[in-house]
Design a protein that fits this description.
This protein has nine helices and seven strands. It has 365 residues and is an alpha+beta fold. Strand 4 and strand 5 form a beta hairpin. The chain is rod-shaped and about 120 Å long.
Length: 365
């Protein structure tokens, strides 16, 4: 019998099948994803040497061919992915077909590969969307070859490489004096540094939510906690594999990597370890915040139950006295006494007041 045979008859709240949960968790690596091809691509090329820098902007992939083995270092940044264009430039720059498939993939795990004289890095840039309060990702592929670096991006409207571009335009900058592996390091360093920017923005949301939970827990506080925990899943999923990526570069014996550049990759590795530790700290805070919310709810419930118990105890004497004098016997003390009603009411009032004083003395409220 199938497990989900009768599940369709059980109403499940929307909170458990949110679209964000599907985006984060429902990924099947055995299914070949169909990428929507970009309508147009933007190609930016920085062809430079220590003495000279030339910047080009193209829209056709064939315009990149003349920069291969031209005696200078070239950074080719391609915004927008189309299968035919990626395959064409991969063929011209002798990039293996397996790497081409990784470039065109979707939701790929960050990784590093060395295939036939080419060093390949795939990872995600992270951005924080303040309107949706969500962490957004953009896959970036970086190919390091002999005197060239090719970067593939999905969205031409945003990236984190402006600092690298500005340093390239400075005549005596270190990036102009070094080889192509230093340029690859600079790109990876910018991506990792931007992780901290995203975590700072997410940390501000966590601090605001923590203050709300401590001061005045609301019904939607637990929903906000779950939403932030999902964003931390996105952070951890993208940050953790980058450690292995950088570790692979540091341990690599590729001729493309200069020994002088290894210390810079070690610095990026230290940053990504720190970013991972911060992500774990945020996760611990969210777990503690959820426990705090549950404790506040239980404490509030206990306060309500305590008040109800006190009220019940105070009403018990009146119930007993009223029950005794309400019995249907012919002879009841003070039944025909003109002050009987007032005596009974006095007993009903004096006993609860005495009980209230005793509760107060014992510190029960």
């Amino acid at each position: 019998m199938r497990k989900n045979k009768y599940l369709k008859y059980i109403p499940i709240p929307d909170a458990f099948v949110t679209q964000r949960t599907k985006e984060i968790l429902y990924t099947n690596p055995t299914i070949v994803p169909q990428r929507e091809e970009a309508k147009e691509i933007t190609i930016t090329i920085y062809d430079y040497s220590p003495e000279d820098l030339k910047e080009y902007h193209f829209s056709k992939i064939q315009d990149c061919y003349r920069f291969h083995r031209n005696g200078q270092i070239s950074w080719i940044n391609i915004d927008g992915l189309r299968k035919a264009d990626v395959e064409a430039i991969s063929t011209h720059y002798e990039i293996h077909s397996l790497l081409t498939e990784d470039i065109l993939s979707i939701n790929q795990r960050p990784k590093m590969d060395e295939v036939e004289g080419v060093l390949f890095c795939l990872l995600n840039m992270l951005f924080y969307n303040k309107d949706k309060n969500a962490v957004e990702t953009e896959q970036v592929s970086i190919v390091l070859g002999k005197d060239f670096v090719i970067s593939f991006q999905e969205d031409p409207k945003r990236d984190v490489f402006d600092s690298v571009r500005n340093r390239l335009r400075i005549h005596n900058s270190k990036i102009r004096q070094r080889t192509a592996d230093y340029l690859c390091y600079s790109l990876l360093d910018m991506i990792v540094d931007n992780y901290f920017t995203v975590m700072e923005q997410l940390g501000e949301q966590i601090e605001l939510l923590e203050e709300e939970v401590i001061r005045n827990s609301k019904r939607d506080s637990i929903t906000k906690i779950n939403e932030l925990r999902k964003e931390l899943i996105v952070l951890k999923r993208n940050i953790a594999p980058v450690r292995d990526l950088l570790n692979g570069i540091i341990r690599s014996e590729s001729d493309l990597l200069d020994d002088r550049t290894t210390k810079y990759f070690n610095d990026v590795y230290d940053h990504i370890v720190q970013a991972y530790d911060m992500c774990e700290n945020y996760r611990d805070i969210m777990v503690s915040m959820q426990d705090l919310y549950i404790n506040n709810v239980n404490l509030r419930m206990n306060e309500v139950m305590k008040v109800m118990a006190i009220v019940t105890c105070l009403m018990a004497p009146a119930t007993v006295v009223g029950g005794i004098f309400g019995m249907n016997f012919d002879k009841i003390p003070y039944l025909h006494n003109e002050y009987g009603f007032f005596i009974a009411m006095g007993i009903m009032l004096i006993i609860p007041l005495w009980m209230l004083a005793m509760f107060k003395r014992r510190g029960w409220f």
